């Protein structure tokens, strides 16, 4: 492989990896076995020197923060403070021109294959941890007598009844348009999407993931429930193109079905819990724990 093609392949793989984990707050702790505070203390006065508010230093610091936000969270790329130091050194040397274009291409040509390998290995490790956590959480949900597991594998935990009582009122069909509030997390508790803090969202069920389409048909207007969605009913092995949801990830949603806007039906199938009993009341406030030990 030529230096140019190796560097290009590395850039592509690196961008894909960063896209996958940059929004995953928990991912950094997967590899950071050695405290990152040690790297901060070894960084010298730059890590501790206070910046005066309104100063030119603060303006330049803000520029650095802005550039870092475009790059994404680099911590999951490294396992310890020594690796973090060398990564930061490479970023700075390339950014300020200490390494010219020719030197950069030579370096990436020489180590590009190794870089691709380590990026893939660490991305796969993150994915495996998320998959394992997701399976464990789905199993925990399914064993709760206040939940119901649908034939498709989606698990529903009713939380709050609608105005007509639990299990009473209008239910959507697969062709319905609904208005909802929702809060979606990965197994580690990372929030990947949420309408909370804003206006409710309206959309046709035919345009959402299969887990939503199936699960919401068992909810009545006004009810709130937790949905546990296995990966095959979400984004499968591919994940989302932007990397926000990794491949193989189970998803967990808290959903309030505010309104069935079209094609709703009355009655419908009953939810049966893991103990074989028809669910007749909401399960109260659920506190599912993510892999980081914090409630979702």
UniProtKB/TrEMBL annotation:
PANTHER family: PEPTIDYLPROLYL ISOMERASE. Its EC number is 5.2.1.8. One of its GO terms (molecular function) is peptidyl-prolyl cis-trans isomerase activity. It is an enzyme of class 5 (isomerase). Gene3D superfamilies: 3.10.50.40. Residues 175-261 form the PPIase FKBP-type domain. Keywords: Isomerase, Rotamase. This is peptidylprolyl isomerase. It catalyses: [protein]-peptidylproline (omega=180) = [protein]-peptidylproline (omega=0). The keyword Signal does not apply. The keyword Metal-binding does not apply.
